[in-house]
Write a structure and sequence with these properties.
alpha/beta; 6-stranded mixed β-sheet; 6-stranded antiparallel β-sheet; 31 strands; binds flavin-adenine dinucleotide
Length: 464
């Protein structure tokens, strides 16, 4: 049989398993059926119920406008799949082509898509995380619980971490007229994602809306009362704050633990893959039958020097899912690369923040349009003299122009495309907090001397 015959047979009778039944998993399943895949499709997900949308969980669900159970993702088409929900996958056996479930079942596949996403990083002391009134926000249940706690009218909410999720939650608290303290280790909110200049704008915005913003501080302890309810937080400078609700918004942990012995290039930074969404194995070699999409993927982008980039962006999850699905049922010559320029949005303190590109891939930033004090502007990011990203505050309609500048490696700083040229348009250093995780994140070691023998081994196996 030719490889074209094999592919035709696979599209008709093959077995595809998708692990992670949320945004990326569902959109991939729909795209597989659109591509004419008529074989068996199995969706494995550890959450119960229909796949739902997460962005509203830190926005409309917390204001109470949208009930948590009204966030179900719209279906684009029937996917005719078997759904195995409520049990996590616990292993991937690439020799036997099987996904192992935590209840002992083994699910065979010809091709597998991994879209297990990210979970919320919990508070680091388990007994304190378990106090009533301490929340994270990643799932529908989390958001429902926090919405109830906000509706009960807490005396104060403490938000730990001023990234996008923490800032959005602080904004909702102010909208509901709830006193809120935001504690952030970095010098300003959003600074890890957007740098010091935008961080300063975000600080001003939070304070102008009545947030008690404390930067450069670390929360060291969450204290409960005799009934096990959170009541007080302790800071590393010796100060304390009384509050009834604490929201831990310290980012996510990629769901790759279940792949520990799979032989894939999977670790705390995600699962490495090529632009065709095919997973790399532990040696960095491309696998044939394992694909990755969404928040858990770590994919190279030619625009950014082919660096492997992980994104926790809704649009990226959808696009990667569609590329992965296409490539799962296509021959090598027909495969697509995932080359989209990243796009992200957030709504906080009445401002629509949008970004295009990768702002952390920059050494300088400049306001190119509008006025920072009016909170209506665009800032462009540059790396070694070319445009690599842009961020807009209430000015999203120009972002497509910046996307084109990024795609064409246009010189930085770019000219202002509109008459609203800012008064101060000198580029300044972008100034991100130090990459302290880089040194700590090693997961593999290289062994062997001859090129034929040289292999990568996971640190765990090496030290066993
Ligand atoms: C509160 C919040 C607000 C957000 N706001 C925005 C926004 O404004 N703009 C934006 O662009 N993006 C936003 N995002 C990010 C966006 O929601 C994600 O990029 C998107 O959900 C990624 O989809 P995914 O399918 O890759 O991963 P996920 O949505 O994380 O889904 C992964 C699924 O896999 C399941 N799973 C994990 N491990 C296993 C296992 N071993 N076995 C079986 N199943 C498993 C998980 O439980 C989950 O159901 C937000 C996210 C959150 C949490």
């Amino acid at each position: 049989m030719t490889s074209a015959d094999n592919l035709r047979e696979f599209k008709r009778d093959g077995r595809i398993v998708i692990v992670g039944a949320s945004l990326a998993g569902l959109r991939a399943a729909e795209a597989l059926r659109d591509e004419g895949f008529t074989g068996s499709l199995t969706m494995i997900g550890d959450e119960l119920g229909e796949p739902y949308d997460r962005p509203p969980l830190s926005k409309q669900v917390l204001t109470g406008w949208v009930p948590a159970d009204a966030t179900t993702l719209p279906r684009r088409r029937d996917i005719n799949a078997e759904w195995l929900l409520g049990v996590p996958a616990s292993g991937l056996d690439l020799a036997a082509n099987q996904v192992r479930l935590a209840d002992g079942r083994e699910i065979p596949f010809d091709r597998v898509l991994i879209s297990t996403g990210v979970r919320a990083r919990p508070w680091f002391v388990e007994s304190e995380a378990a106090l009533d009134g301490v929340f994270v926000v990643r799932t529908r249940e989390h958001a429902e619980g926090l919405q109830r706690a906000l509706a009960a009218g807490p005396s104060r909410v403490l938000v730990i971490g001023a990234g996008f999720t923490g800032s959005e939650i602080a904004s909702i608290c102010r909208e509901r007229d709830i006193p809120v303290t935001v504690a952030e280790l970095a010098p300003a909110p959003l600074v890890g994602a957007l740098g010091a200049m935008i961080g300063e704008v975000a600080s001003d915005m939070q304070r102008a809306h009545g947030v008690d913003l404390r930067c450069g501080v670390k929360v060291t302890r969450l204290e409960g009362d005799a009934q096990g309810h959170f009541r007080r937080a302790h800071f590393d400078d010796g100060s304390t704050i009384d509050a009834d609700v604490a929201v831990v918004a310290l980012g996510g942990i990629r769901n790759t633990d279940w792949l520990r012995d799979s032989g894939l290039a999977a670790g705390v930074w995600g699962i490495a893959c090529d632009t065709g969404c095919r997973a790399l194995d532990i040696n960095g070699l491309i696998t044939d039958d394992v694909f990755v999409a969404g928040d858990v993927a770590r994919c190279p982008n030619p625009i950014y020097e082919y660096r492997l980039i992980s994104l926790e962006h809704w649009a990226n999850a959808v696009e990667q899912a569609e590329v992965a699905a296409h490539n799962m049922v296509s021959g090598q010559a027909d495969r697509w690369p995932h080359l989209t320029i990243p796009l992200f949005w957030s709504i906080q303190f009445g401002v629509n923040i949008k970004s295009v590109g990768v702002p952390t891939f920059a050494d300088e930033v400049v306001v190119t349009q509008g006025s920072v004090s009016d909170r209506r502007f665009v800032a462009a990011y540059g790396y070694r003299g070319r445009v690599t990203a842009a961020v807009s505050f209430n000015n999203a309609k120009w972002l497509d122009h910046y996307r084109q500048l990024i795609e064409s490696a246009a010189p930085f700083p770019p000219p202002c495309p509109t008459p609203d040229q800012p008064v101060d348009n000198k580029p300044v250093p972008v100034d991100f907090p130090g990459p302290e995780l880089i040194a700590r994140g090693a997961t593999v070691v290289v062994t062997g001397n001859d090129p034929g023998e040289r292999r990568v081994t996971s640190m765990q196996q090496h030290h066993r």
